[in-house]
Design a protein that fits this description.
single chain; Rossmann fold; 17% strand; binds 1,3,4-trihydroxy-5-OXO-cyclohexanecarboxylic acid
Length: 155
Amino acid sequence: MKVLVLNGPNLNRLGIREPDIYGSETLEQLEKKLLIVGKSLEMEVVCYQSNHEGALLDQIHDAEFNGFSGIIMNPGAFTHYSIALRDGISSINLPVIEVHISNVHSREEFRKISVTAPVSIGQITGFGMYGYEMALNAMKKYIEGREGNGQVTKN
Ligand code: DQA
C-alpha cells in the first residue's frame, strides 16, 4: 500500500513558523517520522510539499497513475478557498484525508471553512503533527475495509 502525503503552502516553514501554533518540529523531521510510521503499518509513504497550487494539483492528478492507494493532504491556506484543489480531489478515484496541525475551528472565522473537506473521506484537525500519524492509520483501515471486510466506504 503506497500513500502520498501532500503538504501545501508555508508548511515548508514548520519549526520556524508560529511555533506556538504549529510546534517546533520541522517538515523534514515530520516526513522522516512518517516514513518510519508508514513502515510499521506496512505502508510505503511518499512525501511532497509545494507552495504552488498547480504543483499540488499535478500530484493529485498523477497519484493513481503513480501507484498510490490514497492521499493524506494538508492543503494549508488553500483549504479555505481553492476550488481547483477541491475539483482535483473530486476528479480522482482515490480516498483523500485532510489534516490540519492546528484546530482550525478554534481560530479565525475564515479557517472554519474548508472547501476540500467535503470531497475528502474525513478531516483530522487539532492534534498537532500526530494528526498525520492518525491519518496514516485511518487510511490503512479505510483501504483495507474497502478491500473486503464489509465496511461502508465512499469510493
Ligand atoms: C493549517 C491551517 C491553515 O488554516 C493554515 O493556513 C495553514 C496550516 C494547519 O495545519 O493547521 O497553513 O492547515
